[in-house]
Design brief:
Strands 1, 2, 3, 4, 5, 6, 7, 8 and 9 form a 9-stranded mixed β-sheet that branches. Strands 14-13-10-11-12-15 form a 6-stranded mixed β-sheet. Helices cover 41% and strands 19% of the residues. The chain contains 15 helices and 15 strands. The chain has helices at 20-36, 41-47, 72-79, 99-113, 136-150, 203-212, 231-248, 259-268, 274-292, 312-319, 335-345, 348-351, 358-361, 373-381, 387-396, and strands at 5-9, 53-58, 61-66, 87-94, 120-127, 155-156, 163-169, 173-176, 180-181, 193-197, 217-224, 251-257, 298-299, 326-327, 399-403. Helix 4 (99-113) crosses helix 5. It has 2 domains: 5-181, VC0802-like (2-Layer Sandwich), CATH 3.30.2130.30; 193-403, Rossmann fold, CATH 3.40.50. Bound molecules: adenosine-5'-triphosphate and magnesium ion. Adenosine-5'-triphosphate (ATP) binds next to helix 6, strand 11 and helix 13.
Length: 404
Amino acid sequence: MKYTAFLIKYAEIAIKGKNRGLFEDALVKQIKYALKKSIPSQDLEEKGLSDWFEVTKASGRIYIECLADYDFDEVAGNLRCVFGITGICPVKHVADEGFDRLSEEVIRYVDEVYPDKHRTFKVNARRARKDYPLNSQEINMELGGRILDRFPEMKVDVHEPEIWLNIEIRERIYIYSETIPGPGGMPVGTNGKGMLLLSGGIDSPVAGYMIAKRGVKIDAVYFHAPPYTSERAKQKVIDLAKTVAKYSGPIYLHVINFTDIQMEIYEKCPKDELTIIMRRYMMRIAEDLAKQSECLGLITGESIGQVASQTMQSLNCTNEVCTLPVYRPLIGFDKQEIIERSEQIGTYATSILPYEDCCTIFVAKHPVTKPNLNIIKRSEKRLSERIDELYQKALESDEVIIVR
Ligand code: ATP
Ligand code: MG
């Protein structure tokens, strides 16, 4: 079936009262951005088109008209990454050339889309143009009858049909019956910006995805510790950011050289407190970057009790250095649940590549699981001599990579 348009369904944003228009505009913007990914720009010029797709909003719906040939799987795949969309209905357009012609087209549609005819269906006509000679109910009855004549194996079920055959009578006529599920959530850009602490692990990319799903734009920071962490470890983080960016839009990824701070902590502080103190410095730097780039919160992939540095006591110690809210969307998730999410969003295969990150290299054999904040603060005092200078140096090492 050659579909000539898509009807986009959205749920949550429709209930936002006065803000509805703003949310719809944000969704249209994200849809256009997603569609651009499937258009080679030189082809547009060759074809004399200013755009490949036309996106319009009308009465609680968004329509995408496909003005030229396109790759269905690619376009549908890109739309499936747009937060705010709950369903994507591929549409076939028919010119209004009389009811007999419409019936033929509908029968052809059913034949192509449903090779197995042992299905129940219901025709659901909507007459947006009141000058059409048949009203909605008449269209339902008449089309239903003609479909049954042509495909006697099919059955009408008006209560719970397997196939809802939607026919909309507008300037042109729209036929659609299939819905590809969208990711839900809210369009990115409607809820401020957050700074994601992105490591090469399984958890933090999922955390970024989940916060972006609520409409939050994402910046990210990765703490790199060369030569202890390799270029491949850094590339892995860039690749993860790329996958998250499919959903969140472009990500400004800050790469901070963390080696000197880490070495200093390693030399001066008790081994069992290394991870906690290191995490406190990561949070401090992330917060500084967040404030510089107008982010309203930090985002991490922490989950209670997952490792020693994520017990309630440890989280209490790392949280203490932040003034911005810290969003931890995975806080109540089991590892297996996080893994399932990462498989769904496409980050898992990259996350499990073996390249070490700085946490794994400097980790103590027996880290404290119930750190005491006062003791941690006392240990940090041992750093006072050089830490300000190293901190400044780390901030200056900031390399910004724009990941799309
Ligand atoms: P992940 O799978 O996200 O790496 P993890 O289970 O390895 O998580 P930790 O190493 O304790 O957990 O890290 C907790 C959180 O701290 C991570 O989810 C991430 O948000 C942040 N984090 C850890 N290491 C780094 C790093 N090198 N750069 C940026 N953020 C980091
Ligand atoms: Mg990690």
